[in-house]
């Protein structure tokens, strides 16, 4: 490299300068040189130069380490950060240079100064993460040889350096996912390093034993060496217990016990290195308790008693807190294990609580110091859940662990301690305030989690009234600040249990605490107020089981306090170190988002917020605070300007100067926020817009504005606001052309393609076809060009939504013609492979409605699909519409009235930070259509009336189409001939006959239609499955279908007659009265006289139903809900044990890029299919823990198979579970495939965000009295995959059925086409599952007799009997 060491040294010296100008220039020079060959080697040589100043060497070492991270394996580094595919990767370090670095790194690390050595050790770990051991086989032998040489020379500086490097090298075994490759690496490391490690460890132990009374200077490096050995011990034992360590466990445990139990001189004890070693030993003990409990149990008693004694011994070293935490963690693990009896005696429990738990819960001087000096860290530990490694928190965790087995004893001890603490406080509140603080902390820390059945330690309301309220009502907000903070924390934690009236009484007092001089206290007060705004009550909707989560405190509750709250909150921002306090700003945001502010308060608030914004623009440093600041502005605009348009000029006057300053001064962190605020103001304003807005519109359309990727979502949001507010402006000065070009520039990138569609959707929604029509050719060209290279689900779904919007706005003809204008017949080429399959995958209430309505109009109005040649596509589209509409509604049973918790952002990044309060309100483009399901039925009925017979013929063709998923019959060689004969038969029917058939579609839809269910899906499925196609006796066929529909749809037995009032359903039939009479006659001849109404009502619970094979045998109520509506687990004790099995499946759509990576095993996280298989098996075994009301089932067999499908670039997952027991294992099978699918997603997500898990379903459930099948067209048993031989089928049925009746004979007639013939097994299941073996009704036999006759007629028509 042509850069001299002197130049490099000068750059690093300047990079340390406090002056920003030379510092930035030096950083730029280093960045420019980073991509040149030889740069890494030059850095390493500078680090090794002893004549260079240590500060420069340290800076160079840090830069060298970071340079290796980005340039050693650039593609891996980019993938690890999940950067967009468009981000350029830095050039890799050349191979010869890499080899030189690896040859020098270990020796230079050993010779480096103490401050530099750790950096080079981390650099070695960076290189080894990529190259070790395969591409760096010499590393481990070099480390071992150097370690033995250093140990022999008693050079513990070198020993510790080498052990530190080894610890970094082996750390991956702690954090990496277990797989075969990792285990091979572990075996290599164990074979080479386990024995030398033990040698050094034992030699150092002997050295320490000989110098127990030695000075700290002598023992410090020895203890540090042992600590590093313990770190390596932990890494090498993290996956499983290696054979070497099991064989030498006594040597290790003997020395571990000695370090925990030996007392050293006070100087050594207080120095800190010894306690750090003991903490590492405790970590290893906990590891062995968790993973190797059986092998470790012989040592457990000695270690538990030694750790007890150690914790009861006072210590004051800097590492004492770390030791205390790790030691208590170990005891906590023991307390939750099978060895919890160590804590069973009352004396032990008393000693643990009095000597370990309660002393560690009390505040210490260090806590008070942190409270005063570093309030941010104090809050982070205390209320943000990051205090797991603090004495207070871990002591409470130990109590919880012991309470799992000794709950009553622990509760009694803690309750007595709380009472004692409060008594001590009452005796002298001024001196003993820490006792009350500890009592409050115990109650808060040991409170049960939400949803837990555990009871509280105290009566919350009583404790709140007697202990907390006096602190909150004290007039001096600055007295005993730590106690006040504890009281406020209690209020926050138990906010759900505090009655509303009590909260409203205390709200003015909370506002007073905003003026406390303590940063912690006014932060806790703000946090408490903000969390109160989020409290929701569960309210059951009258007349249903639906539950809504309704805010407890609304605008009417908050409004009287808003002026005081806002005044005090803005005053709190003026306290020292709270100028950018995120808790205060979040509280401001929440108050403005919930309450209603009058014009005067709104004007004051916007001026203060604008001032705060102008100040932080000078040096943006707190992204969390800044996000809440912009959310506050957005909330104020949304709540105030919407109610009072006169406030808009006031807001513009306050905000425009600072927003313009953000753009002019290039405060890039705030650009996305500024554009969202501008979008809000545009939406609030009435046209015509002022010149300021139109100037911004001009800037918005400039290509330069769109070059920063992080701004694009906000710019799209602003552009949408302009398009909706002033669409006519697009006709001027070529603006529409600029908008179209912007959208087309967004489509080619996967990260912005969805935004491109947002722009196009807005254009289509707001402009007439006359204006936008000329641009369609360019739009389609750009979209379909992109579609050729990217067929990801997200992109195709966006395309379907876009095409749907065009259709509903401008009609099917315009959509079809505009696409075909690009290439003749192109629309149909897009329809089949993209629109139809992806229609089922649309999500979102508005999107689903739009897509289903558009597709319905397409099949009912478009001449292209109504053409007879398109019947198959018509049926496929109908199938997709039904599948889409049959999905669960957006309503999930618990609805939230939105006031969401807005989580803090973690920092500025390229990711877009959306403002919740500034979000665009989603508008329904089809407000006139109430229900898309009803729209489908109505549209099909109109089509039937307009063209009698067309709907039914299309359904029949769909039924017999081999390529359609709903097809159920495989007619082998005679398929084509039979289909032609069926179609010709229908063509010979008269209009009245076809109209009656179509009337059943109207009958099912009109009489049984309920918008909240999927009856239309069941109805059409029953047509495909049950209707005897081509039956010569229409009455028999019709009556059978009606009977089936009655039992499929009816929630309870209904009167079987077809009433005269339903005659209107039989479209275009002039003789419907006669048809109805014939149908009633046929029903009575089959089922007997219908029961009376009284009999129906009295015997409703006893009447069994014939069910469709696509549905479960459903009881009249939910099995997992008791009589009062509460959840319960089903009691299966009365069931008989039987062999039960289930098969489930799902697909993971990867896309071509990820599919190729998985197929070639190039995913960075490892072997995807193997890991997913293991995860699926583990998931099946954990089903009872994951799904609350599932029984714990002892599985006898679990199988998970993953297969790559190149046709659609997917992973097909099939899972099977089996048991012998009283309940089925379908949930275990479905959990297995779901967990396996999630694992595939997790391992591949860095390569793509478009992966989709779909088609999770149950394929087979066996072992119940009635075999039910979710998807009978799938292979149902391993032994019956594909076609089933007749003899095998006959034997299987006779073996498993006690029914030898006419039904079974007729089933054999159907399948016994030839003695050696074959039939699709799914067809048998469909016929068989209609028959309910427990039905005792007198019409059962006649029904079966009729079914047999129907089967015979099918055989006659198809002419396929032998």
TrEMBL record:
* Pathway(s) where this gene product acts: Cofactor biosynthesis; molybdopterin biosynthesis
Q: Where is the composition biased (Low complexity)?
A: 75-86, 1092-1104
Which BP terms from GO are recorded? Answer: Mo-molybdopterin cofactor biosynthetic process; protein export from nucleus; protein import into nucleus
Q: Origin, by domain of life?
A: Eukaryota
Reactions catalysed, as given in the entry: (8S)-3',8-cyclo-7,8-dihydroguanosine 5'-triphosphate = cyclic pyranopterin phosphate + diphosphate
Which Pfam families does this UniProt record tie to the protein? CAS_CSE1, Cse1, IBN_N, MoaC
Q: Where is this region: Disordered?
A: 75-96, 1090-1124
Q: Where in the cell is it found?
A: Cytoplasm; Nucleus
Q: What class of enzyme is it?
A: lyase
Q: Could you tell me which PROSITE patterns the record lists for this protein?
A: EF_HAND_2 (PS50222), IMPORTIN_B_NT (PS50166)
Keyword Nucleotide-binding applies: no
CDD domains with a match to the protein in the record: MoaC_PE
Tell me what this protein is called. Answer: cyclic pyranopterin monophosphate synthase
Please name the GO terms that the record assigns under molecular function.
calcium ion binding; cyclic pyranopterin monophosphate synthase activity; nuclear export signal receptor activity; small GTPase binding
Which residues are in the Importin N-terminal domain? 26-111
According to its UniProt record, the EC number is: 4.6.1.17
Entry's family note: Belongs to the XPO2/CSE1 family.
- What is any one of the record's Gene Ontology cellular component terms? nuclear envelope
Which SMART domains does this one have? IBN_N (SM00913)
Residues of the EF-hand domain? 1299-1334
Keywords for the protein's UniProt record, in alphabetical order? Cytoplasm, Lyase, Molybdenum cofactor biosynthesis, Nucleus, Protein transport, Transport
């Amino acid at each position: 490299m042509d850069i001299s060491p002197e130049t490099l040294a000068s750059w690093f010296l300047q990079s340390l300068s406090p002056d920003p100008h030379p510092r930035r220039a030096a950083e730029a020079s280093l960045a420019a040189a980073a991509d040149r060959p030889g740069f890494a080697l030059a850095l390493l040589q500078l680090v090794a130069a002893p004549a260079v100043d240590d500060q420069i060497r340290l800076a160079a070492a840090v830069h060298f380490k970071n340079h290796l991270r980005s340039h050693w394996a650039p593609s891996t580094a980019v993938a690890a950060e999940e950067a967009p595919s468009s981000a350029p990767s830095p050039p890799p370090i050349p191979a010869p240079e890499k080899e030189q670095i690896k040859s020098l790194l270990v020796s230079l690390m050993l010779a480096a100064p103490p401050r530099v050595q750790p950096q080079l050790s981390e650099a070695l770990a960076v290189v080894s993460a990529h190259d070790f051991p395969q591409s760096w086989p010499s590393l481990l032998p070099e480390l071992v040889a150097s370690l033995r040489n250093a140990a022999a020379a008693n050079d513990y500086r070198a020993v510790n350096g080498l052990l530190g490097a080894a610890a970094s090298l082996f750390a991956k075994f702690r954090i990496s996912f277990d797989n075969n490759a990792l285990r091979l690496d572990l075996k290599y490391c164990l074979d080479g390093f386990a024995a030398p490690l033990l040698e050094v460890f034992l030699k150092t132990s002997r050295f320490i034993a000989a110098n127990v009374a030695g000075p700290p200077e002598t023992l410090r490096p020895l203890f540090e060496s042992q600590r590093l050995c313990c770190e390596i011990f932990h890494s090498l034992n993290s996956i499983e217990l290696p054979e070497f360590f099991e064989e030498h466990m006594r040597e290790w445990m003997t020395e571990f016990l000695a370090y925990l139990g030996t007392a050293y001189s006070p100087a050594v004890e207080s120095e800190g290195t010894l306690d750090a070693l003991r903490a590492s030993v405790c970590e290893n003990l906990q590891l062995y308790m968790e993973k190797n409990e059986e092998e470790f149990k012989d040592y457990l008693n000695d270690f538990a008693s030694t750790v007890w004694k150690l914790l009861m011994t006072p210590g004051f070293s800097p590492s004492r807190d770390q030791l205390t935490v790790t030691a208590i963690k170990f005891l906590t693990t023991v307390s939750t294990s099978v060895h919890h009896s160590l804590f069973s005696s009352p004396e032990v429990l008393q000693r643990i609580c009095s000597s370990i738990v309660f002393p560690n819960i009390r505040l210490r001087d260090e806590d008070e110091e942190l409270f005063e000096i570093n309030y941010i860290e104090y809050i982070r530990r205390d209320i943000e859940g990051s205090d797991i490694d603090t004495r207070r928190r871990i002591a409470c965790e130990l109590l919880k662990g012991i309470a799992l087995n000794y709950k009553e004893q622990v509760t009694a001890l803690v309750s007595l301690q709380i009472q004692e603490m409060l008594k001590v406080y009452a005796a002298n509140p001024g001196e003993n305030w820490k006792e009350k603080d500890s009592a409050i902390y115990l109650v808060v820390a040991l409170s049960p989690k939400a949803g837990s059945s555990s009871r509280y330690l105290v009566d919350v309301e009583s404790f709140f009234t007697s202990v907390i309220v006096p602190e909150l009502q004290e007039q001096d907000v600055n007295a005993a600040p730590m106690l006040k903070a504890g009281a406020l924390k209690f209020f926050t934690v138990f906010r759900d249990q505090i009655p509303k009236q009590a909260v409203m009484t205390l709200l003015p007092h909370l506002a007073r605490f905003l003026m406390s001089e303590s940063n912690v206290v006014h932060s806790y007060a703000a946090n408490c107020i903000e969390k109160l705004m989020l409290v929701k009550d569960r309210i059951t909707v009258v007349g249903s089981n639906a539950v809504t989560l309704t805010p407890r405190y609304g605008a009417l509750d908050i409004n009287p306090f808003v002026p005081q709250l806002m005044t005090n909150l803005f005053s709190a921002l003026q306290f020292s170190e709270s100028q950018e306090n995120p808790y205060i700003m979040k509280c401001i945001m929440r108050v403005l988002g919930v309450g209603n502010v009058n014009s005067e308060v709104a004007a004051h608030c916007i001026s203060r917020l604008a001032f705060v914004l102008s100040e932080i623009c000078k040096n943006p440093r707190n992204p969390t605070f800044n996000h809440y600041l912009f959310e506050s502005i957005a909330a104020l605009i949304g709540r105030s300007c919407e109610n009072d348009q006169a406030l808009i000029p006031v807001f513009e006057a306050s905000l425009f100067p600072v927003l313009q300053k953000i753009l002019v001064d290039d405060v890039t962190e705030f650009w996305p926020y500024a554009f969202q605020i501008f979008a809000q103001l545009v939406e609030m304003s009435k046209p015509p817009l002022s010149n300021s807005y139109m100037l911004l519109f001009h800037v918005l359309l400039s290509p330069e504005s769109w070059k920063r990727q992080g701004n694009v979502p906000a710019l799209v949001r602003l552009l949408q606001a302009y398009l909706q507010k002033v669409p006519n402006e697009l006709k001027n000065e070529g603006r529409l052309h600029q908008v179209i070009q912007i959208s087309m520039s967004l489509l080619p990138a996967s990260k912005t393609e969805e935004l491109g569609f947002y722009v196009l959707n807005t254009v289509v929604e707001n402009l007439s076809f006359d204006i936008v029509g000329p641009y369609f050719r360019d739009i389609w060209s750009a979209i379909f060009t992109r579609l050729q290279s990217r067929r990801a689900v997200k992109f195709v779904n966006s395309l379907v939504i876009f095409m749907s919007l065009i259709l509903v706005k401008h009609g099917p003809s315009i959509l079809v013609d505009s696409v075909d204008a690009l290439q003749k017949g192109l629309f149909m080429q897009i329809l089949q492979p993209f629109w139809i399959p992806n229609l089922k995958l649309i999500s979102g209430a508005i999107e689903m409605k739009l897509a289903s309505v558009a597709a319905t109009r397409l099949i009912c109005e478009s001449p292209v699909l109504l053409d007879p040649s398109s019947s198959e596509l018509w049926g496929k589209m109908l199938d997709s519409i039904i599948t889409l509409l049959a999905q669960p509604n957006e309503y999930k049973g618990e609805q939230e009235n939105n006031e969401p918790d807005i989580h803090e952002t973690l920092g500025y990044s390229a990711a877009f930070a959306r403002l919740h309060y500034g979000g665009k309100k989603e508008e329904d483009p089809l407000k006139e259509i109430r229900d898309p399901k009803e729209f489908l039925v109505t549209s099909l009925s109109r089509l039937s009336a307009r063209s009698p017979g067309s709907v039914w013929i299309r359904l029949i063709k769909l039924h017999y189409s081999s390529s359609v998923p709903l097809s159920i019959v495989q007619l082998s060689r005679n398929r084509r001939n039979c289909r032609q004969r069926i179609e010709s038969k229908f063509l010979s029917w008269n209009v009245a006959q076809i109209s009656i058939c179509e009337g059943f579609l109207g009958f099912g839809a009109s009489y049984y239609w309920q918008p909240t269910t999927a009856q239309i899906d069941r109805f059409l499925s029953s047509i495909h499955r049950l209707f005897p196609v081509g039956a010569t006796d229409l009455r028999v066929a019709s009556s059978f279908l009606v009977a089936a529909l009655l039992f499929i749809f009816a929630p309870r037995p209904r009167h079987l007659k077809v009433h005269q009032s339903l005659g209107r359903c039989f479209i275009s039939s002039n003789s419907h009265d006669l048809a109805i009479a014939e149908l009633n006659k046929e029903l009575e001849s089959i089922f007997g006289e219908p029961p009376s109404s009284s009999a129906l009502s009295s015997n409703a619970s006893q009447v069994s139903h014939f069910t469709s094979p696509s549905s479960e045998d459903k009881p009249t109520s939910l099995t997992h809900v008791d009589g009062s509506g509460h959840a319960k687990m089903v009691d299966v004790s009365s069931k008989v044990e039987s062999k039960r099995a289930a098969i489930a499946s799902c697909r993971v759509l990867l896309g071509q890029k990820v599919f190729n990576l998985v197929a070639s095993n190039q995913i960075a996280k490892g072997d995807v299919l193997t890991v997913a298989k293991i995860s699926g098996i583990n998931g099946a075994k954990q089903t009872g823990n994951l799904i609350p009301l599932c029984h714990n089932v002892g599985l006898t067999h679990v199988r998970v198979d993953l297969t790559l499908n190149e046709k659609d670039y997917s992973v097909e997952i099939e899972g099977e579970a089996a048991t012998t027991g009283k309940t089925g294992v379908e949930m275990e099978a479905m959990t297995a495939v779901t967990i396996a699918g999630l694992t595939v997603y997790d391992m591949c997500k860095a390569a793509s965000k478009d992966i989709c898990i779909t088609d999770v379903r149950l394929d087979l459930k066996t072992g119940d009295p009635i075999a039910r099948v979710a998807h009978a067209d799938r292979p149902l048993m391993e032994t019956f995959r594909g076609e089933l031989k007749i003899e095998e089928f006959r034997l299987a049925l006779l073996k498993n059925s006690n029914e030898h009746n006419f039904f079974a004979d007729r089933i054999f007639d159907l399948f016994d086409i030839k003695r050696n013939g074959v039939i699709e097994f799914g067809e048998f299941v469909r016929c068989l599952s209609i028959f309910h073996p427990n039905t005792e009704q007198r019409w059962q036999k006649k029904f079966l007799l009729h079914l047999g006759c129907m089967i015979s007629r099918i055989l006659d028509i198809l002419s396929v009997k032998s």
